[in-house]
Amino acid sequence: MSSTAVKMLKEKQALLPKNSPVPNRRILVVDDEPDIGQAIAQFLRPTSKDGNVTPVRRSSRSAKPTEGNVSNLPEFDVTVVTNPTEALAAVQAAQKEARPYAMGFFDVMLGADIDGIELVRQIFTIDPKMCAVFVTAYQDRSVDTIASVLGEENREKWDYMNKPFNEGEILQKARNSTALWDLHRLKEWQEERLSEANRLLMFNERQNTVAAVGRSVAHEFGNLLTHIVGNAELALEQGKLERMKNALELILKTSDTATNILKRFRRLHDEDEALSKPETFDISLVLEEAAELMEFQFRKNSVDLTKNVSGHPILRGNRHSFVQVFVNLFINAMHAMPNGGQVEVTIKTDAKEYEIRIRDTGTGIPEHLLEKIFEPMFTTKGKNGTGLGLSICKEIIEIDHGGRLVAQNHPQGGAEIVITVPGEEAKS
Fold it and tell me: Domains in the chain, start-ordered, CATH in brackets?
């Protein structure tokens, strides 16, 4: 990992959540026979004769080596109801309070308008993350029947057990189901952290791109201001009305050019623009915008850019991200040609996909590095690179636009990036 990336990660880690989700031990018990419901609750939160909750005895494998192999706190928070109406109300209240149930034990034969299976189906529409265990004394509903009612997408969220049951069975089902709930929430939390870290890395790489383009913008503004000031001074020296009028027209035209350059630069910098909703755009126009942003850098480094575009490649996606792809690839090509050279962009279109080839005349890429160059944090530029440019380009093309991005060496020398993206019908 490059020193730049390491430093950036250390700075941004403070913004990420530190604590993993708290385990959920809330359980709902639904049975139209109160004695059975209370029996299940007693197994999950045993109470002593004085009515106080007693510790839960754990298995020898999971317990700490304490006296009596007993935990200091009750394991589960249990709610017992006797009918579907109370069950649905309890689940809705739990959702409203942001204290959802991890799982529930449901009697299949509830003696109500709906049975336990239909009740669980309705609960899954309220809380799709909740798990369920069906308890019944009858073999009237097969596992396949239950699966057809609850749907294939919920298959891993429910289990089945027969009466009569014992304490060990109840505890095992409760622990398995709550552990499954916790596992899914931990996975979601980790994905959120990775997503946030990735967003921060992409933003950092965007800032690096902006800095590179900023040098070009600054140079262009210097030229434009020289043009404006020169015309104004000449007009004042000559003192002729017609000369002043012409000078003002040139100044206004130059100011418009400066405004457009500034707008392009701000779009590249603005994160909200970068994350905007998809739109329809012409890839050739995006190429022109990226070329204008890099114009000064190309001139300074003696790089000639040629563009060969056939048709009108109309694409649905994020045009600002596509500008960043071109700019990043142009910067990479320029670094591969320290003594100058040529960058050639070819865009071919057909009804199904567009092919974009970006070739430089540098030394090419060592064969053993062709796959590694897309790995995050891998860089061949030492302290001058973050190792994020190409990996972000690949993500923008393949994830955001459903395309492909590969690197190869051109038969006539130099490196070549080949991008293919699904295209709309080419317009004439």
Answer: 24-165 (3.40.50.2300), 214-422 (3.30.565.10)
